[in-house]
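FORM 7B: Structural annotation worksheet

SECTION A. Query
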Amino acid sequence: MRKIILLFLLFISKPALAQNAAAKLKFEEAETAFNNGNYTSALSKLDEVDQLAGIMSKSLYLRIATQQKLFDEADLYDNHEQKKLLASLQKNGSAYLKAMQNEELDDKYREVNAIHESLKYYPSKEAIAQMQQQIKNWENMPEYAAAIKSAKDRTGFDLLKEAVNKGNVMAMMLIGRLYSTNLGFFDVKQDHVMAMNWYKKAADLGFAPAQYEVGNCYYFGNGVEKNYVEALKWYHLAANKGNAQAMKRIADCYFMALGMERDVRTAYNWFLKSANNGESEAMLQLARFYQNGIVVPINAQKSGIWKERAENTTAKGSNK
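SECTION B. Predicted structure
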């Protein structure tokens, strides 16, 4: 009976052992391909590893490292393959960090975390859709919708405040903008201190456009004392949620040494992030970088491409 059991165990273990051996061999081939710079081949081998042995931490790490080599942020705009790669890299990075969060901190974890942090400025389609839907919901609130139709009537301002009392951050933002300008809507007179206070209400609730506006108040000294360091704090909060305007302001600060030492290379990286998120002014800056050879080689073609993108983006915005 004992002999039968041993034979049975041996029989069922052979395929598993063979499978593990095959997975180990494929992983070694993937490592070799990676080290030789054959990144597409490395990914293909890792697909085979996952099929044979399931997703393992070491194969997931190698996949992330390989995808990072293939990811080109400078070629992300309107490039479907790069956008797919970005989404996969974000997903894999999150999975690795979650799986290894209780393990001992090592260089691989630090590397993946750094990659993941650098990609957080590109919000997922789901996050963008969720924010757009929330904005639509706020705009469709009866009090908010009625207030917009009563722009010349002080009662409209009271309706905005009703919307505020129901947690409508769009209403908070609008009141802030009313105070920051001198257009006279709702009989509101320009008051930068009041504008800052209303922007701050929405910003404290995590609304990225309001966080950007609070940053602007500190950047220009509107309603508060000018403070570039404080402005950058708010710009980073907005940029973390994908706000392209905030990214562009961060780039400006690095480029013009506002609140920090000048760092043109980092400025370029932030202009690139901002441009890839649709900011036309950042696209124009990139066009100038390539035209004049600022931290990148002079490239008239790339300069022209970014200038054309900026013009097209501006045209789309004016047609909305």
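SECTION C. Observations
The chain has 16 helices and no strands. The chain has two domains: 2-119, 126-318.

SECTION D. Sign-off
Analyst initials: ____
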